[in-house]
Amino acid sequence: MPPHLNVSAPSGIRLGLRENWPQFSLLVLINAFVGGMVGLERTVVPLIGSEEFKIASTTIVVSFIVSFGIVKAIANLVSGHFADVYGRKHMLVLGWLFGLPVPFMIGWGPSWGWIIAANALLGINQGFAWSMTVIMKVDLVGPKSRGLAVGLNEFAGYLSVGVTAFLTGYIAQRYGLRPQPFYLGIAYAVLGLALSILLVRDTRHHVGLELANHAAPAEKVGFWAIFRRASFGDRNLFAASQAGLVNNLNDGMSWGIFPLFFTAFGLGVEQIGVLKAVYPAVWGVLQTVTGPLSDRWGRKGLIVAGMWVQAGGLFLTAATRSFGWWFVASLLLGLGTAMVYPTLIASVSDASHPSWRARSLSVYRFWRDLGYAIGALSAGIMTDLFGAAWAISAIGVLTFASGALVAVVMNEHRPVRELERAR
């Protein structure tokens, strides 16, 4: 057992959302600030590359997403191990310290290299801070409400992504692409860091309580054994990891390619901001429904259907040329991602022992967020060679195929109602 988790729980520690609502609510708020840091970039940064720095190559423009995705994936991979060894709160604070320079570097950086470097720091911020808010919420609520906990966490994060994407587009339309939109990021980073230092409490005792009521693993499980199991050794964990990678692959593509695609057909920054806001806002809000539904209905059906709905949104985006149809496509992307995102995290938690759950979630999030880099890079190359519509369609085909793979490979999770009847 990791040394950080080798503790006995004090008598006042209980699992459950109602029992831990003050800390849970605080972590929801903090993750809204974490999500806002990504929302700063959804509308404005690709346009800074093409319009302010006059970068003609789409592949080079999306390079900031590649640096973000690779660094975030690696930060995710190590965050669970470090959280078990040093504590969840310490990693949350460290994530915010890395995020603090980001809005300054993007808002005032003199070259595109500064934007790429800022996104490397943003990747560490997201890999540590977002991972810890997810893991700590799962620690607090226990096994019965994981889907609800993850849904609320992702709701706060991605609603904030959407709201911030809209606000930055609105501000940029009136005051310019830099630096005014990034004042929001300064506020997010300062507030997130202050709340994490002053008010957040670690959740190691909640993990200790769950471990006390859970059968011990048959053997000590090392990091690389967990990596192999979460990557390809367990059919449920493999299905979740590949679906997470493809989900963020299409999200990375939409992050980098959509603003340039919409601009080419005459949309202004504010209209692009609306489209870029609708997708994560719908994604964020509906996770409060889809997360709890996965606890009751099971995980597999929501994941498969969600991947296919996303694919439909991508095909519609590529095939149409008007704001109205793109708005509908954005709604579909948001709906599909809401069905998939919290359900995948909950399915990984279902298949993991509490003593190594944080590390298995980290491996899953490594593969998932590596999708940002793969999606942005592959879509950038395809756009330069064949055009944006072809790139979007190709990613849509891959998304549909990923959902089909989940349908074939994943075993269904038994919902809470069935577990209670079985006791």
Give your account of this protein's structure.
The chain is mainly alpha-helical and 423 residues long. It has one domain (18-208, 220-422): MFS general substrate transporter like domains (Growth Hormone, Chain: A), CATH 1.20.1250. It is 80% helix and 0% strand. It is built from 18 helices and no strands. α1 packs antiparallel against α9 and α4 runs antiparallel to α5. Residues 416-423 have low confidence and may be disordered.
The CATH topology assignment is Growth Hormone, Chain: A
Mean pLDDT: 88
Domain count: 1
Please give the oligomerization state of what you see: single chain
Q: CA-to-CA gap between the ends?
A: 28 Å
Principal-axis shape? globular
Number of strands: 0
Q: Residue ranges: pLDDT <50 for 5 or more in a row?
A: 416-423
Q: CATH-wise, what's the superfamily?
A: MFS general substrate transporter like domains
**Strand-pairing-aware structural class:** mainly alpha
The proportion of residues in beta strands is under 5%
The description of the largest β-sheet is: none
In CATH, what is the class?
A: Mainly Alpha
